[in-house]
Amino acid sequence: MTGQGQGPVEASGAGSGSRPGSGSGPAPGRPARRRGRPPKTAAEDGPGARDRILDAARTVFAERGYDKTSVRSIAALAGVDASLVHHYFGTKDEVFAAAIEVSFEPAAGLPGALAHDPGRIGERLARYFLGVWEDPVTRAPLLAIVRSALTHEAAAKVLRGFVLRRLLERIAHELDVPDARFRAELAASHMVGIAVLRYVVQVEPMASADPEHIVAAVAPALQRYLTDPEPQGPLPAPGAGD
Fold first, then answer.
1. How many beta carbons lie within 10 A of that of residue 130, not counting itself?
2. Read out DSSP for 133-153?
3. What is the pLDDT of residues 138-171, one digit of tens each?
4. pLDDT of residue 21
């Protein structure tokens, strides 16, 4: 019905006494914010924008932790509109998951490294894992991820899902032993514990120990987890705890 002041949503709030540029509409020359892909002017930096967003996400998560990181803060550091972050990744959880994916790329080759010479699998796992953490380039984003997961359940849930899907299940696939997934989890828990003490909490003497000394000390335990045909104690039924 005409004459009732109804019109398009964009005109909502513009009634008698309103003038151009007043009310809830965007200021002149400023595009309206919307869901989905932002206007071209917000994404004109080209295909590198997505990589900048991921780099910014790792940096902000590292500096502020999961709780204090926002999509807006990531967008600001990347030099893009926040709507572009939502367009590429969706929610903050999904940005965090994507940052994990990139940060764990060096570890993605771990299952292949374990596929040969079963008699030295414990040593190779320990050396590979510590090598990733000892490299300053790969250590920084991993620290950000672990710190976030230690302080926020949503971040921990994302990390658990990734580690299970991309690492533990693939490692278990390479093991010709019963309860392979559980064994892979035991080995992972051992190495993650070392990472937390050495690189996050920095407990001495673990923090300053020679990496090769750590490898020599933990390799036998990892070897037993992954290859011992008669593991000690009952193991949980498949699927327990899922």
1. 20
2. HHSHHHHHHHHHHHHHHHH-H
3. 787 778 778 878 878 877 877 777 777 667 777 7
4. 42
- 63 Cβ contact partners less than 8 Å away, ≥ 6 residues apart: none
pLDDT tens, residue by residue, 74-84: 999 999 999 99
How far apart are alpha carbons 217 and 182 in whole angstroms?
Answer: 22
Q: Are 177 and 226 in contact (CB under 8 A)?
A: yes
Tokens coding 79: 């030099």
Classify residue 222 as exposed, middle or buried by CB count within 10 Å of its CB (0-12, 13-18, 19+).
buried
pTM of the model: 0.62
**Residues 102, 87: Cα–Cα separation, whole Å:** 18
Measured between its terminal Cα atoms, the distance across the chain in Å is 57
Reading the block at residue 102, the tokens are 């990139």
Residue 229 has pLDDT above 90, yes or no: no
| SS3 (DSSP) at 43 | coil
**pLDDT above 60 (res 22):** no
What does the DSSP 8-state code read for residue 168? Answer: I
Count of Cβ atoms closer than 10 Å to residue 237 Cβ: 8
Smallest Cα–Cα separation from 105: which of 138, 78, 134?
A: 138
Cα 231–Cα 234–Cα 240 angle in degrees, nearest 5: 115
